Amino acid sequence: MNEVSLSAQHLVKHYGGVVALADGNLEVNPGEVMTLVGANGSGKSTLGKIVTGVVAPDGGRLLLNDREVIFRTPHAARELGIVAVYQELSLVPRMTIAENIWLGHEWERAGGILRHAEMRQRTQELLALFEGTTHNHLDPDMPISALSPGEKQIVEILKALSWQPSVLFLDEATASLDSRQVNRLFDLIQDWKRQGMAIVFISHRLDEIYRIADRVTVLRNGRTVAAAPINELSKQELINLMIEGGVATRTNGKHLEVSTAEEILRVESLSTTTLRAINLVLRRGELVGLGGLQGQGQAELLLALFGAIPYSGQIYLYGRPVVLRRPQDAMRHQIAYVPGERNTAGLLPIQSILDNLLLPSWKHYGFPLRIRQAQADAMAIASGLKLVMANLDQPINTLSGGNAQKVVLGKWLLRRPQILLLDDPTKGVDVGTKSEFYKILSDLRAEGTSILFYSTDDEELLGLCDRVLVLHDGKITAELSGERLVHSELVAAAMGSST
Hints:
Blueprint: E1 6-15, E2 18-28, E3 33-37, H1 44-51, E4 59-64, E5 67-69, H2 74-79, E6 82-85, H3 97-101, H4 116-127, H5 149-161, E7 167-171, H6 179-194, E8 198-202, H7 206-212, E9 215-220, E10 223-229, H8 235-242, E11 263-271, E12 278-283, E13 287-291, H9 298-305, E14 312-317, E15 320-322, H10 327-332, E16 335-338, H11 342-346, H12 353-357, H13 371-384, H14 401-413, E17 419-423, H15 431-446, E18 450-454, H16 458-464, E19 467-472, E20 475-481, H17 487-494
């Protein structure tokens, strides 16, 4: 690969009246990892998309090896060795792994004939980089639709790698990966550094940042406010730079009396194609976590309880058996579900904030529609969530990731759920927004809402939950609470062993 230094200087980007980037600056050199951090809406993704040719800047300039360049398309950036892995996947579900990896730069013979065998062989070599870290054995001919979120993220990384980049942007690339996959990616990053690759690493996980970064660039409110070697900033100092006006703290919200509270949900011998004889109890106001390596059945459990996938076994609500064959059944029983993939399963991206907030609730406003009441209720929810927006008519796809996730949660809060199912709700969300989420969960618990919470962040599970149910190979293999609710126990149970 060619060794490339990249410099973004005083970049500016507006979307209508919204200033997404006011003064964005970034420098990254061959053989180093530059971490780009900041709260959601700080301009990180916009800066990355300008540098990789996805959007055009309104001001500023880009330099490659001290020569000014202009990228009008992502392909133009890739041709000069700048490639990105974005938080939102770009894979085509019905196509195979190999077809996705080589889409847009297929190997051809004279006459336009594709070199299928050679591309398949190279795909196999790329997949071998993550061998032993996935639940499935990945094959070049597997369709993307058959993969778990973590496996899809791996394919997205390999797709970027197939371009042989000199500068690689990893935008929340670890958000869907489990610990084995993250460890392997970090080993690969060290190899790529030795080969002279320049890497821009965007993450909200501070432990990962301090583990992998050489230097850090901090954005706040669309401006670069600091750039320094990572070892010159403590975690506290870094968070203070990211959040204007102080540090956001985590709200635990544990209830000492929850073990004696009313039983709301009981599950007996629940099984799906992935799950095997799941038994659990959820009490009023309790927050129960689902832990374990990714892809062990946590997401499927939440989907089954929301009536979104078939199951066998028995579900009891308030002591009475119920059958949840479809999401409408769950909604009638005041069960709400917040999916992990907000852009594909949680939102209508081209619709307004108002339309998304009221999506499950329109019919409750009668016919003719009581639009003023609906707008007032939506505004009350938006205000309670501290949603950063111009107005309720603003399209969802103009919001930052954290604010978009607030809308996913807010549309269900309008229905006042008694049971809230959360699938990794803070994935790719900054520390400030996380703190706001934690406060919302605490308030909901105080009102009697029971929460079943899956997270890929072990520290989040340990800090928030009354109990953590650890899944391994589709079974609950451990229940951690009290003195056992510690990291060593959680990791051991996730790996199928015990301390």
